[in-house]
Amino acid sequence: MTKTSRRNRFRLKLLRALRPWHRRLGLASALFILLLVFTGVAINHSDDFGLDQTPVTQSWLLDYYGIPAPAHVAQFSALDKRNLPALYITDNLLWQGKQVIFEGPQTLISASYAANMLVAMDNNQLYLFDSAGHLQETQNSSTGLPAGLLALAVVDGRVWLKTDSGVYQADEQLIDWQPTVPLKPLSWLMPNPQVNAEFIQHARSAHLNWQRVMLDLHSGRLFGALTVWLWDLFALALLLVSLSGFWIWLRQKPPR
């Protein structure tokens, strides 16, 4: 047997061995490519699809990301008959309807509409907003606000505060706070006993959008650190498919 015939037989055996692995790797890689194409297009057109503005509402996916329901939830309705959206508090977030308008440094206690503004507070600070929900001013002890805030009341458009040191009333501009004794008991704002379950899910969803999910799925991080290595193996499989396909084509190419 000549040296050329032995070489041809070796090439033939190698071709027979490569073809089934080429097909298997190609099929596995095809699924990976489809996933990359789908998520890549979604990421590139995230603004067009509104993925960065679309919250994830699926409970199982929120659970998978470890996003719990807010620990502190309170709902405050408008005191007058104006058609104003309800105010919600979830931990340190203040919502006007279903729109987050403020994120505070600590858990918020109470919120209410007062005249042509919106008032919210935590234990140490008072936050003043315009009627559209834009923060206008923050008051604390350095601006003359009493410390140890406990409760909020709005009577005839005037704001009252219950504190560790007593009851205080603000002037009409909410600049000066004076200790006082109300002539009659005040109705301190209390949250509604039942908060809409749909809103609680909405508040939870605000921490995750579909753009983040697409990015994690595209990179392989959605399924944990080990999946990143699996994605690397798929990339290696694509390289092997390309090299083996080129070699098969080269060896089967008819001579000129």
From TrEMBL:
UniProt entry keywords in alphabetical sequence: Membrane, Transmembrane, Transmembrane helix
Matching InterPro entries: PepSY-ass_TM, PepSY_TM-like_2
Pfam family, one: PepSY_TM
Transmembrane segments: 228-250
Protein name as it appears in the record: PepSY-associated TM helix domain-containing protein
Species for this entry: Shewanella vesiculosa
Taxonomic lineage from the root: Bacteria, Pseudomonadati, Pseudomonadota, Gammaproteobacteria, Alteromonadales
